[in-house]
Amino acid sequence: MTTLARFTIAAAALAAAACGRADESREAARASADSAAQRALADRCTRGAARLTAGGIGAVRLGARLADVAAACTVRDTALELEGTPERAHVVEIGGGRVVAVTSGTADTSVVRIDVADPAFRTENGAGVGQTLGDLRRAHGRICALAGEGRMVVQAASLPGISFGTAAAVTPAATRDPAALPDSVRIERAWITEAQSACGAS
């Protein structure tokens, strides 16, 4: 074999090795990016997840695809009915607590309502399940009231999209004037939806 031939073979081997290392570097970079994305999703589930907002809680957001939520949090199916109608519902473990995400019947299975019965989740001003209407009034100001399934439901004008189910029985007086509901009434549940607030603007 001539010197030129040996040189050509050696050069080809070096080029192949360099290409192999470049491919490995690209694969490592992709794996690192995927890992970072997964960590970011997981962070959304576990960090700052106790905040109850009009858009959702942590990774559980109105309009989010259930598959995206499941990529960040532990999700399992559950049975749920609203006024006798079965709904597609999923228990989501998030931030040391649990919420129920109700999803659409569409192909993308997106979140349309979030049900909260866990006192771990609070609004920015500290209102949430287990507290009283007095706490809600002090935290978020004016409230309005409407009749739910045998119990009064209240909303704060400054929290459009969040409804609070109370322990108070439905009465015509409270429906007409939320001031008829005493501060001592306890909040038992919360719902996050895209429905317009019955209170109007704050």
The gross shape turns out to be elongated
User: Cα-atom Rg, whole angstroms?
Assistant: 26 Å
Sheet with the most strands: spatial strand order: 3-4-5-6-10-9-8-7
The unreliable regions are none
What is the strand content?
25-35%
Q: What's the helical proportion of residues?
A: 25-40%
Mean pLDDT, rounded to whole units? Answer: 83
Judged by helices, strands and strand pairing, the structural class is: alpha+beta
Summary?
By secondary structure, the chain is an alpha+beta fold. The protein is built from four helices and ten strands; from the N terminus they run αββαββββαβββαβ. It has helices at 3-46, 66-72, 133-140, 172-176, and strands at 56-57, 60-61, 74-82, 85-94, 97-103, 111-116, 143-147, 151-156, 162-169, 187-192.
Task: Characterise the protein shown here.
- Helices cover 32% and strands 30% of the residues.
- It has helices spanning 3-46, 66-72, 133-140, 172-176; strands at residues 56-57, 60-61, 74-82, 85-94, 97-103, 111-116, 143-147, 151-156, 162-169, 187-192.
- An 8-stranded antiparallel β-sheet has the order 3-4-5-6-10-9-8-7. A two-stranded antiparallel sheet has the order 1-2.
- Helix 1 (3-46) crosses helix 2 (66-72).
- The longest helix has 44 residues, at 3-46.
- The protein is elongated, with a radius of gyration of 26 Å.
- The mean pLDDT is 83.
